[in-house]
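Before the break, one more example. Copy the sequence into your notebook; we will annotate it together after we see the structure.
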Amino acid sequence: MSPARVHLSRFWSTDRSLTVFLILLLVIVFVLHPLGDLGFLNRLWIGLVFSFLLVSGVAAVAQSRAMLTLATGLSLLALLSIWAEHVAPRHSLSVLRAASVLACLGLLAWVVLRRVFQAGPITMDRVQGSLAVYLLLGLMWTSAYSLVLLHDPDAFQPAIPAMAAALQPKLVYFSFVTLTTTGYGDFTPVNPVARALSNLESLVGQLYPVVLIARLVAMELQFRDK
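Here is what the structure looks like once it is written out:
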């Protein structure tokens, strides 16, 4: 293994990588998607940054061969479907993209959460990692809403064209409005599955910070008592 690869692997195995993860997610959610929705940014750039997010996620789980194999397979499937859909948009590719991205984000959220809760002092990097998981949850529900919308184009009112370029930014917006229980009401789920997903997301959005804070405080107190 080359020195550069060893150094990169070591970096992604440290808590500092959680901060990089958070920065990538913040850029995707709060910069790239709004710019894409306004037409100032080509979807290609969003795909590039998201691809880097997936690749970095694979690097983060490189310690386990089985996990590395699973993460690599999911990431490759997600990347191929993202770029294939960009080159030749098709309904089947959109479904594959949404499903593979959902699975990949779920795996990344689980890996990052394990890193946050591993034994040791609660550092700022770990706190930032827990915030990254919160953003990953919002993106996971975005993919879930995409699957519902691809199956039922009238799942939301006002209707969002399932193949429109603005689909993803609008679903990201709706997902985080639901996750934070802001609920502006400009988009309303009318499909039963979409309603169930939005209810579950709002519940997770309220419970996650409470459970997270309690767990982190307990871990810090336990570490100090040693």
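Helices lie at 3-12, 16-38, 43-60, 65-87, 91-116, 124-151, 167-179, 192-225. The chain has eight helices and two strands. Try to locate both features in your own notes.
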